[in-house]
Amino acid sequence: MFNFGKKKPAPPPAPAKKEAAAGPQGFSPEDLARAFDAHQEEKAAREAARAEARAAYAQPVAKSALARGFANLFTRNAKLDENLLDEIETALITADVGVAATTRIVDDLRERMNAREFPDVPALVRALRGELMALLAPVAKPLRIDPEAKPFVLLTVGVNGVGKTTTIGKLAHRFQNEGRGLMLAAGDTFRAAAVEQLKVWGERNGVPVVAQGQNADPASVAYDALQSAKSRGTEILICDTAGRLHTQAGLMSELGKIKRVLGKIDPRAPHETLMVIDGTTGQNALNQLRQFNQAAKVTGLVVTKLDGTAKGGVLFALAREFAIPIRFVGLGERLEDLREFDPEAFVDVLLPETLAS
Ligand SMILES: Nc1nc2c(ncn2[C@@H]2O[C@H](COP(=O)(O)OP(=O)(O)OP(=O)(O)O)[C@@H](O)[C@H]2O)c(=O)[nH]1
Ligand SMILES: [Mg+2]
Fold first, then answer.
1. CATH second-level architecture of 62-139?
2. pTM above 0.85?
3. Would you identify the family this protein belongs to, as annotated (predicted)?
4. Packing angle between helix 284-296 and helix 314-322, nearest 10 degrees?
C-alpha cells in the first residue's frame, strides 16, 4: 500500500474482508448486486424508450396500406398454405415494398414453410416480422454528430416539396434541445419566399441564418455560411437547397458544385448529405435516390409524411436497393414529429406479433 505520511490514519481493514468475501472472479456479492441493479435499470430504460417510440409510430403507421394489408390477412382465420404466401406477396407489392424485397421475403417464407418450420400461422407471422426486421437492420444507423467536426455540416437535398425546409426546422429544434450551437444557410435561392421562410424561422428560434437573397449562387451561400460558422466555432451548420427534379441534369450538377465548394474549406464537409424523400412517392423514390446519389453521394435519408397517404413499404425497397442509413422519419407536422428511425417500433406497428394469435 502507498503510505505517504505517518499522520495518515491506517487503511481500514474493510478491503481485506471484502476480498475474502469475493467470488472466484474477484467480485463481491455487493458488486454483483450493483451490476444486476444497473443491468435492470438499463433494461427498463430501453423498454421504456421502445414503448415510447412504438406509441409515436402507432397512429400514423397503423393506417398505412401495408399495416392494413397485414391486418386484413391475419385477423381472419388464415390457413398456412401457398394461397397465404400469394396474399402476402400482393400485400407487399401493393404497399410499395418493391419486387426485389418482396421476392426475397416470400421466397424465404416459402422455403421455410416447405421445410415445415412453421407449426401454425402465428409462427409464420413471427418469421415475417423477422424478415422485415432483417431488411431494415442494415439501415438503422442513427445520425451521430462528430464532435471533431467544427462545424458538422449537414446538406439537405431532394425533389420539390418533399419537406426539406420543414425537416431543417425540426432538426434545428432537436439540436437546440440537445444544447448544440447551430447556424442555417439559406441555400434555396430559387424562390424569394424560401429565403424568407428560413430567416423568419431562424429569428423566431434564435438561430443565425446566412442568406444572400434571391438568385444568389447557392454554392456561394454555402461557402459564406461555412466560413462564418467556422470562425464562430458553431457546432452544426445545416444548409438548405432548392427542390429539384432528379431528371434536371443542370440543377443536379449544382449539388456537386455546392459540395466541392464546402470541401474547399473543410475537405470532410459536408459530413452528412441528407436526402429528404416524400414517403407517399412510391417506387419513384428509388429513381430519385439513384440520381441524387450519383450527383451528390447521399449519406443519409429522411422519409417524411408517413402520417399521410404513405403506403409504408417504400422504406423496405430503399433499404434493400441502396442500404443507405435511414436517419429520421417524418410522422407529422409538429416539431417533435421528426423521429429517429426505429425499425423495431416500425415493424411492431406494421405487423404486431399478436396479430394472428
Ligand atoms: N404531414 C406531414 N407533412 C409534412 C411532413 N414533412 C413536411 N411536411 C409538409 O410538406 C410541405 C412541404 O414542406 P417544405 O419543407 O416546404 O418542403 P421543401 O422540400 O422544402 O420544398 P421546396 O423547397 O419547395 O422544394 C409543408 O406543407 C410541410 O408542412 C411530415 O412528416 N408530415
Ligand atoms: Mg424548401
1. Up-down Bundle (1.20)
2. yes
3. Belongs to the GTP-binding SRP family. FtsY subfamily.
4. 40
